[in-house]
Each structure stands twice: as C-alpha cells, then as structure tokens.
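2 proteins. here.
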Amino acid sequence: MLVGRHHERQQIDQAVALARSGTSATLALVGEPGIGKTALLGYAADQAAGLRLLRARGIESEAQIPFGSLLELIRPALAALDRIPAPQAAALEAALALRPAAAHDRFGVGAATLGLLAAYAEEAPVAVLVDDGQWLDPSSAQALLFAFRRLVADPIAVFVAVREGVPSLLDGADLPTLRLGGLTGDESAQLVELAPEAAARLHRMTAGNPLALLELAPGPPDLALAPEGAPVLVSARIIRAFLQRADPLGQPARGALVLAATSDTGDLPTLGRAAARLGIELSALAAAESAGLVTLRGGVVEFRHPLARSAIYADASASQRRDAHRALAAALPDRDVDRRAWHLAAAAAGPDETASVALEQAGARGRDRGAYATAAAAFERAGRLTAQGERRARLWRDAAEAGWLAGYTERAVALLGEAREVAAGPGTTAGETNPDDPAMLAGIDELAGQIAARCGPVMQGHAILTAAAERVRRPDPERAVAMLAEAAFACFYAGDSARMLAAAERAQALLPAAPSPRTRFLATMTAGMARIIGGDAATGAREVHEAAVLAESSAELREDLQLLPWLTFGPLFLRQAGGRVLLAHALRAARARAAVGALPLVLNLIARDQAATDRWAVAAATYTEAIGLARECGQQTELTFGLAGLAWLQARRGRETECRDCAAEALGLCGRLGIGLAEVWATAALGELELGLGEAARAAEQFGRLQRLLGDLGITDADLSPAADLIDVYTRLGMTAEAGRTAAGFAAAADAKGQPWALARARRGQGLVAADTGFAARFEQALELHAQTPDRFEEARTRLAYGERLRRARNRVLAREQLRAAVDIFERLDARPWADRARAELAATGETRRPRDPNTVDELTPQELHISLLLTSGKTTRETAAAMFLSPKTVEYHLRHVYQKLGVNSRGQLARILADAAQPDG
C-alpha cells in the first residue's frame, strides 16, 4: 500500500507524461532502507501502463556477475539489436555473452546500451525501472549511467532507486534526484492500525519510515516501555524484528532460510539440490512463508525485503554460511560457472586453489566481455586465495589492469604495489630485478608506468617505464622500445625535453636489426618529436615526416587502436598545409569503434590542429567534447590538456572570462600532476589574451613567465617560444633594443628548424624591427611562407603588422590592401580583438570598415555545431548519433534547435551557412 507521497507521485507522473509526449525523463529515488523506494517504483510501473516496460533489480550477491543486471533489464529489447550500428551491436552482444567474447572499450557498451534503448523506444514509449541500484554489478552500472546521462529526446522515462549512503551508479552522476523522507504523522497513522497516541509515538521513534512502522507496529515490549525521546536505530530494530519472526521457526526452517539467503538467484530447483547435500528439507520454507519472511512463487523464493535476507544471513554462523556456499556451488547448473566460482570463494576458509582457479577463469571471461570491474574483483580475490607467490603476483597484475580499464585508478595502483612486493620477493626493493622472473616485474611496472604517465605524477611514469624497459631489452627489445616510447610520451606531457630525448635515443639504440613496422614507427616518431621539442629540430622534422609516411602506407598501423594518438603527431609537429590524412583517420577510427576511452586524447590533438588552422568554431566544439569525455572517464591528464588548449583558443577569440577560467583550472591541475607542457599552453594563453586586449605590459609579464618556464623545462622548439609575440609587445612598448635582440635570436632558432610556420613568424618579427627601407621584403617573405601552412591567424597577424608599417611609411594604398585582408581573416575566424585592431588601423588610412554582423553560427552550442558539421558532411542521422554517442532522436532534437537559431529549414541551407566552417575530420 502506497500512503502519502503526493509530491513524489507528481514527479513520477510528470516523468511518465514526458515519455508519452516523446521526451526523455530520468528520476533517481534515494533513501534509507524501508523508506518506500520499491513502492514508488511500483507506482511508476502502474502509471506507465501502455508503455514498454524494462525492469531490473540489483542483488547484492550478484554484484560480480558480468553485465547480469544489464541483461535482465534490456532482454526484452534485444530484438532491436539489428537497428543499432554494427560496432555497438557487436560490443553489446560480446558483453552479454551472446557472441564470442571480444574485449572492447568499457564505454562502448554504454554507447550500445543507449542505442538499443533508443531503438526500442522508436515503436512505443519506454519506462525503465531499476530497483536497488546500489547493488548493480559495476559493469552494468557504468553502461546504464553512460546511457541515462545522454537521454534527451527519446520517449523514455527512467526511474532508479538506490539506498542512501551506499556507493551506486548515481555517485557524481548529477541526475535529477528525489530524496525520500519519512511519512508524516497522519500518513503514518493511515498505514498502521494503532491508537492515535501509540501511532504518534511510533511515528516519532521511526521518523515515519514505512517499513519500520509496519514491522514495529505489533509493538515489542521494549518499544512500548522505552522512555520518550530515546534513540531508536531503525535499521537495527527492523533487522531484529525480522529475526524475531525467524526465532520461533524450527531448525529445519532456519537451515532452509540460511540456504535461501545465501543463494543469489532464489531458484528453487537449485536450492533443492543444495538442500539435499546438506540434509535439509526445503519444504520447511513453508513455515518461513507463513511467518512473512519469504514468498514462494514461480519456482523462486523471494525475501520480503533485502534487510530480511541480510538479517538471516548475518545471524548464521560462519561455518553454516560456508557450508551453504559450498552446497550451492555443487548444485548450480554447468552454465553458471561464474556463480559457482564466487560461491567456492565464499566457502573458502583459507587458501583454496580450486576456488582461485575458478575465479581466475571467471575474471578472464569477464575481461574478454569488457566487464572490467567484475574481472578486477575476480582476479584480486583469486590472488588472495592462492598460496603460490608467482601466481598471486600475476593475478594481482591482471586485476590492476582490469581495474585500470574499468576506471578504478587508485585501486589499480594499490594492487600493482602488492603485486610488485610479491614478485620482487623478500629482501628485494623497488627498482631491483628479481633474477628468477624479470618479465613478471617488467609487466607490473609497465602498467604502473602507463597509469602514472596518464594520471600523474607523469614523470614517475617515465622513471618506472625506463627501468622496466631495461629489464626486457635483451629477451624482448621490441617491447622495450614500446615502453621507452611511452616513457618519452610522459616526458612530452611533462615538458621535460632532456629526458624525452634520452628515452627516444635509447629506444633507437635498442631497435633490433629487422624491427616490426610498429616498433620502427614508434621509435622514429618518438625520436622526431623529442628532437623537435628540445634538440635538432631539422632532423626531428625529417624523422616525424618519415614516421607519418610509414603510417600512411601501412593499414596495420592505422588500425592499431593503441597507435591512434600517435597518428596525429605528424601533422601537429610539422604544421604544413598538406599531410592531414592521418588526423581524419584517427578520429573516424576512434568514433567508429566506439573507443570512448581513447577519444579525449585524440580529440585534444585534433582540436589543437583545428585551432591552428581556420576552423576555430569546430576546434571549440572539439575541445568541449574532449573536456566532457575526459571528466566522465576520469582522465585528469587529458582534462588538463583540453582546458589549456581551449584557453589558448579563447584567448585569440578575445573571450576573456572563458580563457581565464579554463587557464586557471588547467594550471591548478598542472601543478598537482606535473604536466609542464599544458602549463606552457595555459601560460601562453594568458599572454595572448593580454596581447589581444591591448595590455602590452601585462602580456610582457606573462610571456616573460613563459620564457622562464621553457628554460626550466629545457624546451627549445621555436614553435613554443613566445619570441614572435614578445617582438610585437616590445615594439608597442617602445623597447626597440629588446625587440631587435629577440628578433635576431628567434630568426636563428627558426632557421635551424627550417619549417615554414616558424620561419614565417620569424620573418614577421624581422619585418617589425627592420629599417624603413628593408621591412617590406621581410613581410613578403613571411607571406610566402604562410601560404605553405594552414594557419590563417598567423597570416592575418603578419598582414596587420605589414599594414601598420606601410601606413607609418605613408604608403596608404598598399597599407589598405594588407589591412583589408587582415580584417577579413580575423572576422572570419571570430578573432574579435584582433579584428578591432585591424579595423582601427584601416580607419587610420582613411578607409572605414563597419564591423560585420555577428555570425549566427556563433549562437550554436559546441554540440549543435558539431552535429551540424557532421550532418552537412554527408553523414546520416544515425551515423551522426553513433559518432557523437547520442540517440538519433537527440540528434534530430538538436538539429531542430539549429534550424530555429539560423532560420533555415533544410540541410542544404545549413551547409551553405556553415561554408566558412570547414567540414569535420570524422
């Protein structure tokens, strides 16, 4: 009986009505045990009559069954699998053991779950009800949360009930939430048949908890005699009430109840076989049913409330529980191998190799299906059940890897520490090699280094990886090269040029005589990047070009998911107009394979490239997506780079608040994680912001800080130097000597690198400080070099500087030509402060240029712009939905908003409006 709850019922009614009208709604119900969450879900099911109903309930003892809750929930919808993208369908089928296992990105199952729910709702509105969400298996919880957070325009109402104070899928989810309190006094009196004074006293003592009211209403003597105002532990009272119902039962019924409480399915045939092994008559459960503790129906025994089950299980002796687990393990059908493994583990009183092997096999099955959280728990428990040290170390390493892939970084690091302690053996300290098994230690440290490189402190990752590479350099030089490439990448994050170059050179030294294409690519790209950052830039550029050509010619390299970020480095480091095929491929591959975990890094790198071309609006959208996914995936390093990159872009656009906010958050993360390169970017962003705003002195302060930072890091790459901006700043401040010295030094660095982007900026600097008779030649050289790069902003800055000098030389005709071009580029890019400066210079020549009308495209949100670009590039609605991890109806919802904002009604019209924004990469 549902009493009261008028507000809660209204919220449920509204959610169901939204689903009926074609809009998504999600509502979380949170409260203490017995507060009425299940009753409200029942009300929701009644109100959703006529909707397609999907239901699941978390069971505490089933929390280690991979994707068990997800399968229970979506089983009725599986017929719609053929209507979602093939990669998503394959990921979901593998996860649910509907096809041979194939490991995949943990978020891929979430994307597939969203696609399946949306497809199932295409025929009729859907209601999704999840009870006891705190006990969902972690893999199911992650997939469902990923889907629920992205529901916008599908006719789906989601209701999730979780217990207050217990970790669940709602933690940090920011979903609409109803926190349930107790019933009012009048509502409590309606629920229990007691005299008004007794009902009021009971209400005060239970705070209106419905289950407590019902269980305590019969009035145990101590409750009636308790002094007014005495504290009552409601959960303890409820548990005691359930146990008091069990006390009068005979030993056969108590034994059957313990067996039923130990079972995670309540399947009566299985319980019958287990009971026979224990000499228990299962028919004794009839007495427990009469006592109101359980119900028997449909071949299943169900406890009246989860607390009743917990009370019976906790009240049994440890040996009685172990016996029940052992009997159930033997009674389970052959298909329930995972359940058998966990029952065997629970039955163990010490080391147990049989249980350990069974759990190891369960962990391998979970890992192969992408249930990484479940696999991590199975491997860890298997390690604790074995007496074999080498096997324990390997199992804990496997547990750490699965935990890392599941997003449990801290637990993964702790497990690696335990694994290393076991593998190193007594008396062996960190950094020493166990001569009996160096490969085991190397495998442990390889993962530890990768985690540190991605999560910080990043240089700790470098130290671990370089040491691990030395252990395997003789038996497995190709693996050592790969580790050293990862170590160099950690240095790239940290901005530590010296150690990056050392790691890269060591990788090249370890190359075998006939390396695989993959190893050769990694060694060559790493060496090129390291030399550009802090060594011989010209040689580095040649090596980066060589590695990019190798990748372009090898399908095997391009399809290697782990290499996707590396494919983007060539275009980024060379900054040339051509050779951007690998950028497009990397993004397409990551999206097509639902590699959500790989996307933040790939998106950050591609956004950096877009921001260095004329695709600023697209770059902002890409950065925004990268930042959002990095937050969701818990990737702090990629979050830092996304924020720093977006700050730099917003500085050029003159968006002061956004720039300062992003830079501040990025700099805070840089200090904590040791990410020096992102600190370089964020500091450069603040300098460019001040320069664009006309605050030359403040800009000089920021660029001076940047110079000192680069010096501390040993970074000599001309592309990262603030020299080109400092020449501009010094010129404005009248510091001609400083401007001249800076221009000369920068020209030498650019000449040494020999790449057109650096050379163009250097020639501009020389033009700014040249004598009146020689500046034109330098600016003309700069413009010729700019034509070889994709960066139109730097070209516009050169034209602005050229026009300013021409005007001061009283050559107004030629000045206007350059300044008009600069205004056009700045306005097309939406570089507002720079457009204002160029228009002011043009006005000084006697020609007035009215500011262009605000670009209506600027009114689009980053997600709306990204969807628009994908749709106008030729992708269908379903393809766009798959790429953005949205549902087709959500894409259509955003497209309608785009049409309204831009005043268009067709994709053709939309494409024409977006003509100035280049088409996306993937």
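next one coming up
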Amino acid sequence: MATRRGKLGASLLLVLGLVAVAWWILATGESSGEPLVQTGFVTETAPASPAAAGLEPVAPEGAPELVLASRLLPDAGTEPAVSGAPSELEEAIIGRVLDVSGRPIASALVELLALQGPLLGAKAFWQLARSSPEAGALIETTTGRDGRFRLVVREGLLRQRPGEDIPDGYDPLLRFSARGYASEARRALPGGTAQMDLGDIVLETGARLRGRLADASGAAVAGARVTLERETPERVNSRTSDAAYELEAGETAADGHFDLPGVREGRAGLRVEAEGWPVLEQDDLELLAGEVLDLGTLVLAAGLSAEGTVYDVDGPLPGATVEVRQRVPGGVLHKVAACTTDARGRFACHGLPAGVVHVLASADEHYSAEIEVELPAGAPLQLELPDLPRLLVRARDADGKLVGRGQARLVAGSDLVAGADFVEGAADLLLPKDGTLLVTAAGCAPRALELKRADLGSLRAGTLQLERESVVVGRARDVEGRPLPGLRLRARPFGATPLANIELVVIEGLTDAQGDFELRGLSAGEWTLGADRAGYAPGRFGVTLAAGETQRTELVFGAGTQLAGRVADTRGVPRSDVEVKVGKHARALTDAEGRFAFVGLRPGPVRITLDERPATDFTLLADQLNQVDLVLPARATLSGQVRSGGHGVADARVKLEPGLPPGGRSRTVQGDAEGRFVAADLDPGNWTAVILLADALQRTRRELALAEGEQRVLDVDLSGSHLRVLARRAEDGAPLPGVVLRLKTDDRKTTTEQQTGADGTLTLTDLPAGAALLTARAERRLKLERPLDVPAQSGSLEVVLDLQAAARVEGRLSAADGGTLPVAVVVQAPGADEHRTVPLDGRFTLDYLPAGPARLVVRQDRNPDFRITDEVDLATLALELVAGEITRPDLVVQPVRPP
C-alpha cells in the first residue's frame, strides 16, 4: 500500500506540475520566435463506453518520464525587492502608516497578497506564485521610523497597457498590520503610472484578547487554534475583509495561554479547535479598542475518549484523518471531534459523549474505513483501510506498437482522481471510485471509457487499440494579412462524443513569430478552436476531423471594437481610480482625469459597471471608437471644529461610520491643534460622526444625512464636564498609584486602560453627559464599581475610591484513587460573585476574594456534553477569609468515574 500511495502521489504531482507549466506558458501571450508544439497530451481528462478489452487487475513497477515540449519564462522572482533609487524598470507602491492620532507607526508590516482564485492570464508575477492570501504574502516590507514604506515590484505590475483587459478575478490585495493595531486591507488594481501612492493608511487601535486553554483535569492544551468569527458587513468587499480578519488568529502556547494583541473592535465569536477535542465556541464577545479582554481559563468538555490505531495492508498508517461522528435528530451524522494519527498510526479523541458513535478513518481522500462503537469502549479501536482495486491498462498505438509515452487517468466530474504512466505498454491505475478512464499517448488520439468498480470482475484482459492522432495546423493573421504571433489557441471537443462531456479536455498552443501553429493529439470528430489576444475580438472556429487526419486552416481575426470614455461626478469633477468593468472580464481604473479606454472588445450589447454600482447598458458598434461618459454622484465634504469651553480641542478625532447607503468601511480624520478637521470625498448617504479624544472615549455622536455634493459644516461643543478620581487604600487612606480606571458610558463605549498617578489621582475631561459606570482595579485589591451621573454642561465630579485588600486561597487537591481530577474548585461568599477555577497539577489559586466567611466547593460535571451541565458537589469546606492574607486548604476527593 505504501508503494501504491507513493506512485499515486508522484503521478498527481507530475500532472499538476505540467498543468502549472502550461498555464504559465499560455498566460504570457508573448512569442519566443519558435513554435510551441503540444505532444498530444490533454491537460485533464474525458469519457466513453465500457469496452472491456485492455483492462486487467495487475501492476508493473516503474514510471517513465513524461516530457511536454515548452519554453520557459524568465524567473518571475518572489523575493521582496530592495528599496533604493528606482531604475528604468522599477515600479513601486508607496505610502505612510499612521495611528488614529496621526503618529507614524514604525515597523508596521506591508504585504502584497496573492490572488484569491485560480491562476489567470494577466502579466503580473504574483499570479504565477500563489493562489490565495492563505498561502502568504508574495512580497513585503516594513515601515521606517516616519511610518513610510516603499514596496518595489516588478515592471508591468502597476502599469496597465492601453487596451489591456484586467481578467475577471484579478484582485491583488495590500495588507497593513502592526502589533496592537487592527489590520487593514485594500485592493490594488493597476493604473497608468509606475508608482502607486496610497497616501496615509490609518490603523485603528485594536483590542486585545487573551486567555488559557485547559482540559477537564486542568492540564494545559497546547497547539490549539484560536480564531475570531465575524459577520462581514453588507457592501464591504469580502476579500479585503477576509484578508484583514485573517490575522485575528493564533495558537495556544505550551502552557495553554493564547494572546491576540490587535483585533478589530466590535462583536465577534470565539472558536477554539484543539486536536482530538470537540470545538469550543463562545459567542457574543464585545471587543473594545484599547481594552484587554481576558477570558480566563477555558475548559474543554469533560467526557469519554476513543483511542486506537489505523492500519492498512502494510501496517500502521501515520497521517490518517480520524473523525468521530454522532447521529443527531433527523438522522444526520454530526462531526464531534477529529484528529490525525501519529507516526505509529495511533489516535485519541477526547471529550466525547456516551453512546453510539461512528469512527471514520481516511487517507489520501480516496479510501476509508468506518466502525460503529458504543462509548465507553472496552478496548482500543482498530480501523483497517481496505486495499483499493487496481487496474492494469494495456494499449498499442495505430502502428501496433506498445505505448511507451502516455498516461491513463481516472476522472470523476471535473476532478482528476488518479493517474499512471505507461511502462512498456501498460499503466498501473488505482480505482478509488467510479469514473471515466482517459487514455492518452504520444501520436495517438485520446480514448475515453466509463468505469464502474462493480463491473471489474467481468472485464476481459486485452489491449486497447488507439487511433492515430488528428492534427490541426495553420496560420493566424489579421484581416490585412499580417501574421499574429503569440496568439493563444485552445481546442475543445464538441458534439455528441464522449470527450465533449468533460470540460477539462483541452489542447492548447501558441502561434510562433510567423503566426503558424500546430495542435496535436486530437481525436476524430468536431472540435472548436478558440483564440484570444489583446486588441482583437475573441475568435471561435470549428473543425471536423477524421481519424488520423491533418487539416490545414487559416484563422483570420478582425480588430475588436474600442471603448473610451470619462468618469466624472454630477458637478463635472473627474473621478480617478474608479474601477470600470465592461461585461464580466474587462476591467480598468480611471486615470487622474477620469479617463479610461478598452480595445479588442466584442461588438454588441454590454453592461458597464462603476465600482460595483448598478450597471449601465451600452451597445458597442463594430469597427469604430465607441465613446461614453459616465456620471457618479458628487461626493460630499464634512468639515468643522471640536470645541470645549469656547476653545478648540487639540488632536480631537472624528470617526465617520457609514450607514446604508453608502455602506463600506469607517474612516477617521484627525483634528489640528485648534480642533479643526476636514473629511473630503464622502459618498452621499447616511453617516455617524463619533467624536473621540486621546483616551478613545466617545464624547458624542451625531447622525448625518449627506446630500450629493454637500459641503457640511459640523461644529461640536463638548460638555466641559470633568471627573477627578482619587484612589486610596481602605485600611489607612494612603494614595494608590497605578490603579486601572475604566469609564463606561450608557452607550457601552469605554476608555483605554488609564492609571492613577503617583498621588493616586486621575482626571478625565469633557465627559459625555448621562449615566456612566466607573470601574477600578488594583493588584491584590477588590474590584470597585461606582455608578455616576455626569452633568450636562461644565459640571465637576470628585470621586474618592477606597479599595479594600483582597483575600486569596491557594490549595492542593488530590483524588482518593490517584486518578485524574475532572473537577472545578468554587469559592462562594455571601453577597459576592462565585469564583471558580480548574486545578492544574493538583494545585489551585483563587484571588480577589472578599474577607469574611466563605464556602469552598469541589464540583464535577458528570455530563460529557459541554452544552448541558449535570454538576455534583464532591466536597465542601467552610473558610474564614482574611483581607490581605492567604488561606491554604488541602483536600482529598473521590471523582465520579464512568462504569
């Protein structure tokens, strides 16, 4: 089985490598001066009737090298470019990264991410290296002390040539991140210059989320993935949102702790995935900018375990995937937990519910084994993966010779399932599932057969007879007779043939310097020839071939029609950097004068879309320049001043949150030393202006409805009320420095963590009027909360907080039978919140407890389903807690064990 998997993997890698090379070649659209000739191998696969001859269940060893004639492109390079003086070919993305106060952020990471989608035909090198942002950044740099960056890219990345369409799905992203700040992402479509200046990128202060993960015995769980889940707002580009949110993830360390230092403000759900455990989820977390949200210790569900080993015919199988599933109402099997087998093929899943579960083991996504077991299981589970059916495909070419260069491949739908090379006329093929067998060989036409594993026993041994390949040769030229080099040609089967049912069957080639081309490896029947080149209307031609025929044809292309125009607003102001999309594929950005141009478009009706707004219908006329002027609503401007007591407030910030319409992302503008601010280029619609000062507390909110082209002036006069807080030790009245104070207003917005000074005081100014809650925390002292009523105008509040010393409990806990401790320790005090923790290595600590009588309880949850509790008290102990002192109890308990 190990040899079998190795051969399958090698074949799949070889096929994928050849497909990638073919895509690379065909995406350039340039000519090397030499013809590119396909060797008769189809890029993917196809179907036919169940002819039995040539198939038998045996397997020779070895795999010959499969050669595809091609030319290689120069190395595109994926290393970060070095900053410095620009060369003739150099293109660069520049800008500056600031915080919301306008201060530069040094060492911020700037990444150019890859496309989210398949490789396409644009001449941007990032498309030849990655297929999604999850694969990582292609090039990156960091900001200097002044927050500025220069990201040097390869020539042709930023400058779009006249008439060059941007393919559909071409959506490169730039991402900006720094520790302690929420990451930001934006699109970067090419324009008309060699330098893209992004201006100032403002990163908002992030929230911080931390905690610890432990199992039911208190042991730390390392390597678990911790992620935040959010809903993407309407009308927000999901790709940029996904790229920004992608960094809001981490793993638990060896001690079980996790720390996400810069996550976006707002509500989110927490998802924790640990190897071999049910997913732990926590909904409705409120994350506030500048605030630390400590979740404490998250405990994975106590429950039963399923352990065992996965085998195949060669012995224990490492790297196999094991899933434990349970049937839920409705009869559906729901995944409870999953893990991967270790080097000895062993697995273990924990926290499982009692009752009947299904354990499924799989490898290579092709074969699996499943058992049904009732937990708790009496012995380790054993899952043996069955040996896969194998088929020996024998083939001869049209001259009766054994096929030496070729492949047999199994296709299911549009997926390549398995493949094998021919060795001395035979190819050993695995059959993980039913599908279509496609046989290709040099000089032969492809042949397709439908295969069902249930019918293998009735197949007769023999040899497949392949027909001689059909060939199409010819020349591509324009209507004036000039050859068209570098033209990309694609041949696809058409009509009522088995091959025509498989979309992946395609034979491709390029025209040489004289416009000549040759497409080999075609079969008898109808084929369509397609060709595309910038500046010419896409062409589709049909040919009908006999077996072994070489047909000559001439492809004549007319110049495509042209479209040019200008985008301006209703006041006639040009709109630059607007994405203009014609149909589904052609895209471009307007220049500084709002102009755009396309060539090589197909005549007829099209839809023109601006920045994903409602489309405009337009009819393109052939053989002429089509002109169109497009109008967008004039943008609004919001300006004004933030004042307090008749004077401007220095460094005030105005955060603008969009409603619907216009939707999209919020933006923040920084006021000057007099509190004056300007926010230009706002889409008309509903906005909320939030006024913040340096401590990030919202002072006031104003709802705005901006009309098209409106110049709105917003003057904000803050209340002038201030709060002076004095924190003291309750026992002697001495000032307490370093007390963390938070003020929550009635709209639940909060300050950053601010601390009292050496004299124990802190002053907050220009507070919003209304109800508020002041919270004070200090080391080894009880948390103190004080409700406030802030006056509406120029009021003054003096608050004295006497913080009492807290008691502490440190103890030891052991099981009477010497086993694990799936328990929690709870301290209950009259009039106080319940304090709970999970013992770690038999030790537990509970801090910030009020002085006085209390009760310590050792509690166990007997229900393995973490969504439903069934707790029982194993032991109780009366305590007398003393302020500022530590109580050290030791207990021995007998946990409830499953039968």
